[in-house]
Specification:
Trna Endonuclease, Chain: A, domain 1, about 220 residues, alpha+beta, about 25% helix, five-stranded antiparallel beta sheet, binds zinc ion, 11 strands
Length: about 220
């Protein structure tokens, strides 16, 4: 994984930020304990021996990476991790409470579930949907299921992904006055955009017809 949580201050850093901290200090090791933001197992910093971002941190006990899965590409994983970092730190700063996070987890029950890329379960229910290679956004189905299960969501687009993000955003703004999030793979910068809520997105049949098929 590329991110880890510093246990004493409950703040998530990227491996790159840790690299900078280490290079500025006199000690070639970390002075703090870090844990996995998903399972809270202790992690080890590997950034001095690898250039591969997703290997910057590993579980100390050798168990598989919580962010990695066969079905997930590296490009998708890095967005999920940076999204977890942004949401965790923001919610923690606002509420002062520990933030519980899952990745690739169901929201709702069969047959009305949706798999959220990032799912915050506590202290607020917020999801994030990441669009990278998917050809169809399935916006109506996803948003309906999230809203009906009490989740609000961010929609985050990889700018090197399948869709022209500005165009998709213009389509979405036909039904809601909201901005989508963007992840820039060159700079690793993320903007979350606006939180999509049931009050602000009008999922009517009429609105559905205003969207191209790949978006609706
Ligand atoms: Zn873990």
């Amino acid at each position: 994984m590329f991110i880890a949580k510093r246990n004493d201050i409950n703040h998530i850093y990227t491996g790159k930020e840790i690299q900078t901290l280490i290079s500025q200090s006199h000690y070639p090791t970390l002075e703090y304990n870090f844990s996995c933001p998903i399972c809270n197992r202790e992690v080890e910093y590997n950034g001095l021996s690898t250039k591969y971002l997703l290997d910057f941190f590993v579980h100390k006990d050798g168990t598989p990476d919580c962010f990695a899965a066969e079905s997930i590409s590296g490009g998708h994983q890095i967005v999920a991790e940076i999204t977890v970092k942004a949401l965790h730190n923001r919610i923690n700063e606002l509420t002062g409470e520990p933030v519980e996070i899952n990745v690739e987890k169901w929201i709702g029950t069969q047959p009305n579930f949706v798999i959220a890329d990032v799912k915050i379960t506590n202290p607020v229910q917020i999801a994030a949907e990441i669009y990278h290679k998917a050809s169809k956004l399935a916006l109506y189905r996803r948003l309906r299921r999230m809203f009906s299960n009490g989740y609000r969501t961010y929609l985050i687009f990889h700018t090197g992904g399948r869709h022209d993000v500005d165009r998709v955003e213009q389509y979405i703004q036909r039904i809601a006055p909201l901005k989508v999030g963007r992840f820039n793979p060159e700079t690793l910068e993320l903007t979350l955009g606006d939180l999509f809520t049931e009050e602000q997105v009008k999922l009517s049949r009429y609105n559905r017809e205003l969207l191209p098929r790949y978006v609706r």
